[in-house]
Design brief:
With about 375 residues, this protein is an alpha/beta fold. The chain has eleven helices and 14 strands. The protein has two domains: about 240 residues, 3-Layer(aba) Sandwich (Aspartate Aminotransferase, domain 2), CATH 3.40.640; about 120 residues, Alpha-Beta Complex (Aspartate Aminotransferase, domain 1), CATH 3.90.1150. The protein binds pyridoxal-5'-phosphate (PLP). Pyridoxal-5'-phosphate (PLP) binds next to helix 3 and helix 4.
Length: about 375
């Protein structure tokens, strides 16, 4: 075990162990293993948390994105615009509908979609835009929404890293046509397995996603459309309902830790600290610094018992999986540069002051 792990899931579990055990026991006692009342209860609570009227629990963030696109009728011949510096799932969801991902570059300070470049990427085939609220900070939504409205496009927020973040006071996921969330264990709200959700104010869309996730059935063995198995487990829903109560305080703790990093690392010339944009409340899923000496710094910190990660070392347009798009290095220079410079420092609500001080001291030590 390193001195400062990137993320210590067990530390958080220890604080809620008893509640989790009884929540899981309740599911076991009622045999509501897939879908059912525990899922419905969580859907309602999570939609409410996001300021939306509808929530649909699904099997992962990837399914949330995919099923939202399918429910909006996006398919072969269509284009969907997103960014190249996301987890690959954002692009995969587009591809798995048969549509084509089109990328626009990001802004250097925020790592999120550059709205000034969006219009240029649109064609008559464009059906939707997926801004990614990367690292826990919402993209600059107003100009994106304005362009989308004018061009009659859906906006699907990839909020998989931004549970509880806000944009000009509005919750992430509540601004576009729909917001997609992942509850992968390491996310700010994490299940103890796989899970995801879509939130929206469009009840028709939510209904369609609920059908798609359950083989397109309206009632058992009556299938009105071709769907898939994308349901949420009862045990995951019960775990998430317990954890949702703590999400705001956990996000506050992340923000405090980010502030402490900011203070401890201020004045280190060779690194750039993450920036909270004036329109955003950042929830620091990731605390990513930038430095030209990224790889060497990561090795140095690893030797000192500090685990860091890179989000992401290779932008999507340069992945082998997307070679057929014919894109090359130089096409999205801001995202490419960031992939060579970003380093995610250990970040979680449970990290203590001493751990952060140790990380900061070792970073200062490296640059001395
Ligand atoms: C985690 C993540 C996803 C995928 O979520 P899964 O639950 O792992 O399928 C999609 N987009 C982004 C930005 C993510 O961080």
């Amino acid at each position: 075990m390193p001195k400062v792990p990137f993320l210590d899931l067990n530390a958080q579990y220890e604080t809620i162990k008893g509640e989790i055990a009884s929540a899981i026991q309740e599911v076991l006692d009622s045999s509501a293993f897939v879908g059912g009342p525990f899922v419905e209860r969580f859907e309602e609570a999570f939609a409410d948390f996001c300021g939306c009227s509808c929530g649909a629990g699904v099997s992962s963030g990837t399914s949330a994105l995919w099923m939202t696109l399918l429910a909006l009728g996006i398919g072969p011949g269509d284009e969907v615009v997103t960014v190249p510096n996301s987890f690959i799932a954002t692009a995969e969801a587009i591809s798995m509908c048969g549509a084509r991902p089109v990328f626009v570059d990001v802004q250097e300070q925020s790592h999120t979609m550059n709205p000034d470049l969006l219009e240029n990427a649109l064609t008559p085939r464009t059906k939707a835009v997926i801004p990614v609220h990367l690292f826990g900070q919402p993209a600059d939504m107003d100009p994106i929404m304005e362009i989308a409205k004018r061009r009659n496009l859906h906006v699907i927020e990839d909020a998989c890293q931004a549970h509880g973040a806000t944009y000009k006071g509005k919750p992430a996921g509540s601004i576009g046509t729909a917001g997609c969330f992942s509850f992968y264990p390491g996310k700010n709200l994490g299940a103890y397995g796989e899970a995801g959700a879509v939130v929206t104010n469009d009840s028709g869309l939510a209904e369609k996603i609920r059908m798609l996730r359950d083989h397109g059935q309206t009632r058992k063995y009556h299938h009105t459309m071709i769907g898939w198995n994308g349901r949420m487990d009862g045990i995951q829903a019960a775990v998430l309902s317990v954890k949702l109560k703590y999400l705001s305080s956990w996000n506050d703790a992340r923000r405090e830790n980010a502030l402490l990093y900011d203070r401890l690392l201020a004045g280190v010339n060779d690194i750039t600290l993450p920036m909270e944009m004036d329109y955003a409340r950042h929830v620091y899923h990731i605390y990513a610094v930038r430095t030209e000496k990224r790889d060497a710094l990561q090795c140095f910190l690893a030797e000192k018992g500090i685990s860091c990660l890179i989000h992401y070392p290779q932008p999507i347009h340069l992945q082998d999986a997307y070679s057929s798009l014919g894109l090359t290095r130089g096409d999205f220079p801001v995202a490419e540069k960031s992939s060579q410079e970003v380093l995610s420092l250990p970040m979680s609500p449970d990290l203590g002051e001493h751990q952060l001080e140790y990380v900061a001291a070792q970073i200062r030590n490296y640059f001395k």
